[in-house]
Amino acid sequence: MSTWLITGGAGMLAQDVEARVQAAGQRAVVLSRKELDITDPASVAAALAEHAPAVVVNCAAWTAVDDAEEQEAAALAVNGDGPRRLAEACRETGAVLLHVSTDYVFAGDATAPYAEDAPTAPRSAYGRTKLAGEEAVLELLPDTGYVVRTAWLYGAGGGNFVRTMIRLEGVKDTLDVVDDQRGQPTWTADLADRLVRLGEGALAGTAPAGVYHGTSSGETTWFGLTRRIFELLGADPERVRPTTSEAFKRPAPRPAYSVLGHDRWQAAGIDPIRDWREALDAAFPALPKD
After folding, report:
1. Which residues span the domain enclosing 78?
2. Is pLDDT of 289 > 90?
3. Which one from 104, 114, 126, 146 is the annotated catalytic residue?
4. CA distances to 35, 89, 273 from 150, in Å
5. What angle do the packed helices 161-169 and 222-233 form, to 10 degrees?
6. Residues facing residue 65 across a β-bridge
7. pLDDT at res. 231
8. Residue 190 lies in a domain
């Protein structure tokens, strides 16, 4: 039995990774920020010394995209320096590091899915800080470092767009939802499954290190996603009306196109995540409806 250390233990992805690790018959150690501050080298070193993990899954992140515009240094400490500290410790102990990153490292202006080796060009502070974390992991762990980019996450264990739309359906007659941003809604349980399979492949020597894209197959807009949510609730999807990003201006620019390609999974002998519609249908019964 190998030990998997999961950072960011309070988040919805970490909860699903924990469940998936345990289902695989391995030992999961899940640490919250209070228990493991990834920005503190001493805290990181102590955690790895105590638990001696074979695999570290970094789910800790500064995810407040808009706040990062005014607090980039603070976001960089978590998203850039934190992964570097983890990578340094993993290099010393020989542990595999699976680092979760984001579509925001791209400019978001493509017209075809971004390949894993496509040029990065973040347009926000959040994207820049996440790219710094990616670069640290790939630089320090060329043979045992894995960057898994994801996007549009939803799940049962935390706040997210899908759960918000479920709640709003019960209190709003109509909803105006952005229809000019394209992406891939991704269930945290599906991402957790691929992270664990990738870690298992890393330990077995069958999954090459580097960048992978952990998003659902297919694509839609926030508007298209919301209409499907209404359908699953038995509500009239015509109550969802399309609007533009211009109507919801925010401090940080949102990528207009966040569709990621999945070719790299073939090298690891792992299937990409299923279509977003199939995943949402499977996830829906387990999502809180309040």
Report:
1. 3-160+185-218+258-274
2. no
3. 126
4. 25, 24, 11
5. 50
6. none
7. 98
8. yes
